[in-house]
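Data availability (excerpt). The following record was deposited with the supplementary files.
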Amino acid sequence: MNPVLRSSAAHLFVSSLEAPEPEPADGHHLFRVLRLRDGEVVTVSDGAGRWLPTVVKGGGLDAAGDITAEDAPVPCEVVTAIPKGDRLEWMVQKLTEVGATRIVLANFARSVVRWDATRAARQIERLHRVVREAASQSRRVWLPALEGPLPVTDVLATAGSVLLDPAGAAGVIAHRVVVGPEGGCTAEEVAMAPATATLGQTILRVETAAIVAASRVVVEAPLAAANSSQRVK
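Predicted structure:
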């Protein structure tokens, strides 16, 4: 990570890097909660890989350098059943911090939590705020996509999907991981998956499996690619 990003007093997302202006909630956090003073460095990003160092000046932000464009992160898509209670918010927060690039909520046959259209819209809006806050905290410059809930038939039909299953293959790394409900997937759902993989010998909660899988993809996929490149040479 760029040392300027790591050491900035705060990091946030703005609609324009050419004229960086905090959203009202972000401005309140910067100047009323953190009480940042003139001269302190705040990094801002457009959420699509570009970021800019700024300095606090007169209750606003002034550009203090050039716009930098970072390479896209390792693709890491997590499709997951919706866990109960506040575990969903925690899961989305941690997946963002770990480095997931896309988070998709899905309805499985044995899903306990299901939303009607009105509740789904409200929950997704709330989770988008969670994503932005977690990305700010972890100094991300690429905001992960968040969508759903989608029918399980749609998500399992996508090429490259790997469904987590206790009877699946060991050591499989995939950029698109599917996590079913705690009641498990039906035999029909397992049969629909292009491939299955296991995370070990224990049964994990939905949010635990999602975060473990994402961590493996983010850490191990680049290593696997590097090893493959060395073997080709």
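Summary of structural features: The domain at 77-232 is CATH 3.40.1280.10 (Alpha/beta knot).
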